[in-house]
Design goal:
The chain contains nine helices and 15 strands. The protein is an alpha/beta fold.
Length: 346
């Protein structure tokens, strides 16, 4: 498809969960000169009807009915509903561009099936690897290129409370039980790959239940860490912990500080997502609190618009999503086999 600069991109939205409410609905409404929400679909039909009435658009009664509408240019797949990534296959077969916010590793086989259709049809496709577009990340990339040199080591910690699967600062999926290796793990794997700007070689992962909760509907670990080795000798070591322990009381104030230390050849930086960077070089220490305008949602949708218009863009691609799958499989293999796992394609 081709979209001229003056035309609005007509979209259909699949999945109206937390991510829609917190990130995409506000962004798309603010960017109304460039986007038109034509139709919505959700597996909860009443939710779709209510949202359609609010937006003055159509509420589709089925997934295929929405995706195959002739008055749509693109499909936003925002939540992992019962059909997984099947919406991407239908959209690709229908010639629609696709924006996918579902974690690639939540349905790797489904994504690989969709990838074959997408590649065969030449469908334009963007994946929401949002941490790439946090202000702190974008500023870090500038610093690595201009001030402190190539990255050598990342030490990071991401902490969640309760059964929040979304990390900081906002949601990535609906309220569904996902292992830490998928959310936020897969997004942090991509973030490390993005910062080093090269394909990883190996991954070693460990996990555990620090304090199992017998009444929890979620049976996976509450702590996960992984170490990624890159070809030029760089390392990234990231831990993810879930903390919801009333018995700890005020002691929770002393939990590991969430953030990421990045040591480079000529300096270092400390990132607190999404908007704070403290960095040092030969001239001293510098602290920056970065503006959150445009919002992450606006930045993401702006990149998708540029992709569809054929303009230069930073939109994460299908190849990026497939790389995340390879990395998450490396985590899975390392956990199962207790060894360092290769993530290089055979």
């Amino acid at each position: 498809m081709e979209l001229s600069r003056g035309e609005r991109l007509r979209i259909g939205v699949v999945g109206l969960g937390r991510l829609w409410e917190a990130r995409h609905k506000p962004a798309l409404q603010k960017m109304g000169r460039n986007f038109q929400i034509v139709a919505v679909y959700d597996q909860v039909a009443r939710r779709a009807r209510m949202e359609a009435a609010s937006l003055r658009c159509y509420a589709s009664t089925g997934l295929r009915a929405l995706v195959e509408r002739s008055d749509l240019d693109a499909i936003h797949v925002l939540t992992p509903q019962w059909f997984g990534l099947h919406a991407m296959e239908i959209a690709a077969a229908s010639g629609k561009a696709v924006y996918c916010a579902v974690p690639p590793t939540s349905d790797p086989l489904g994504l690989e099936r969709a990838a074959r259709v997408i590649k065969a049809s030449g469908t334009l496709c963007m994946f929401e690897l949002a941490r790439r577009f946090y202000p702190a990340t974008l500023r870090l990339r500038e610093l690595l290129a201009s001030k402190i040199g190539p990255p050598r080591l990342i030490l990071g910690h991401n902490r969640l409370f309760g059964f929040d699967r979304y990390g900081t600062p906002g949601p990535t999926t609906q309220l569904v039980p996902l292992p830490l290796s998928i959310d936020p793990g897969s997004f942090l794997l991509d973030w490390a790959r993005f910062v080093f700007d090269e394909e990883p070689q190996t991954i070693r992962a460990t996990q555990g239940n620090v304090m199992p909760a017998p009444d929890s509907p979620i049976k996976d670990s509450d702590y996960l860490s992984f170490t990624i080795e890159f070809p030029r000798g760089g390392l990234a070591q990231i831990g993810i912990g879930r903390y919801d322990r009333p018995a700890w009381g005020e002691a929770t104030r002393f939990l590991p500080q969430p953030g990421f230390q990045v040591f480079a050849e000529r300096g270092a930086a400390w990132l607190e997502m999404p908007d704070r960077v403290v960095w040092s070089d030969s001239e001293g220490i510098h602290e920056e609190r970065l503006p959150m305008e445009p919002t992450v949602g606006e930045s993401l949708n702006g990149q998708f618009l540029r992709l569809v218009r054929g303009e230069p863009n930073l939109a994460p691609s299908l190849e990026d999503a497939l790389a995340v799958i390879r990395m998450e499989r490396g985590v899975h293999n390392s956990l199962n086999e207790g060894r360092v796992a290769s993530v290089i394609e055979p």
